[in-house]
TrEMBL record:
Membrane-crossing residue ranges in chain numbering: 23-44, 116-135, 147-165
Pfam families assigned: Mpo1-like
Presence of the UniProt keyword Cell division in the record: no
Cellular component GO terms, alphabetical: endoplasmic reticulum; membrane
InterPro entries in the cross-refs: Mpo1-like
GO annotation terms (biological process): sphingoid catabolic process
PANTHER family according to UniProt: 2-HYDROXY-PALMITIC ACID DIOXYGENASE MPO1, DUF962 DOMAIN PROTEIN (AFU_ORTHOLOGUE AFUA_8G05310)
Protein name stated in the entry: DUF962 domain-containing protein
Keywords: Membrane, Transmembrane, Transmembrane helix
UniProt KW Protein transport keyword: no
Amino acid sequence: MSIFNLKEQFAFYGAYHHDHRNVVVHVIFVPAIMWSAFVIAALYGPFALPEDWQNSVWFQRLGELGLQVNLTLLASLVYTAYYMVLDFTAALLYLPFLGFACSTATVLAERSPHALGIAIGVQVTSWLAQFYSHAVYEKRAPALLDNVAQALLMAPFFVFLEVIFRCGYRPKLYTELNEAVRAKIRQFPSSSSAADVKAHSQ
């Protein structure tokens, strides 16, 4: 399975998130997990860069936007590059939300003495909500337990795609991706696979 193939990645993640109630929970809490992780990353502070770079115009512009050249910005750039490979247009639509998360996380980490506590609280709450949702609605362990890196990399883009697809973005592609999800669900060694496929078709 290629990590750069949208259909395969969407099918992998979507097969664990076919119940609409679980999708709603993830739409709320996946961004919260990403944001709080950005806060923790930003607490390490900016990278040590040459003084000439720090005095440059682009560096000053980053500061005006509440951004720093730090782990949070680096992670944002990695996510952006990856999502652009999967779906360039959707990645561009996602960019303002990612930039907002990066900026606010950096500002909080820089200015609040309670930033770490807030981030940990958001992390714990969000993970508990998602594990509960999987247990109650999906009746299956989350994708995280099968492939940690893949799940964490795809999760933010998956929930964003679910939102824009339901708002009318590329309906033909959405149909194709849902077919791939149903095919993936059929591969699960579970007696509930048929019910899962039916639920995802609704």
